[in-house]
Amino acid sequence: MSEILYWSDVHLGHDFVARTRGFKDAAEQDAYLIDRWRATVTKRDTVWILGDVAVSSPAAALAVLAELPGTKHLVLGNHDPAHPMHRRAHSQQRRYFQAFESVQTTARHRIAGRDVVLSHFPYEGDHADRGDRYTQWRLRDEGVPLIHGHVHGEWLTRTSAQGTPQLNVGVDRWMDGPATAERVAALLLREVPA
Questions:
Q1: Residues of the chain with pLDDT under 50
Q2: pLDDT score for 55
Q3: CB 35, CB 185: distance < 8 Å
């Protein structure tokens, strides 16, 4: 049986992020994340990465991801050069197809019979001490539960000011591997009326 899984902010090759996660360097972090992927994802599964594959040049990260099992889709994040916030994004998108079947800024899914949206960014609540960044690239909160990344370890679940559930599937909160749709539904949709 195949699974749909979600993960964000892998930041392959990023020493600074690796050290904040308790690894000695990016090589140690990357080896750990690759191991967790291989332990969690089969070739029949589909994985949605919700942005920030790498920082700056993604070539090495894309080569690694291309070799990992599963069908992969990317929702671009602020550190992905193909995101339209970057001036030359149009010239970067093609390279992502080395590893991903699709590349987009948002997506819509149905989980446990309910609509949810995918974005790298939460509706709101970026970093409490600095305020929200990249607000022009965020989805408008229309009451649809949101699966996102971007906030690293700030929170796992949070309700928007409008009362909409948001779930962070970033690596910092999901160190054991990508989140299954079943686990996402249990955390994100537990208080959403049918």
A1: none
A2: 82
A3: no
pTM: 0.93
What is the rounded distance in angstroms from the CA atom of residue 40 to the CA atom of residue 184?
15
Contacts of 127 (CB under 8 A, 6+ apart): 133, 151, 154
Residue pointed to by tokens 């991903």 = 100
Tokens of 179: 């989140």
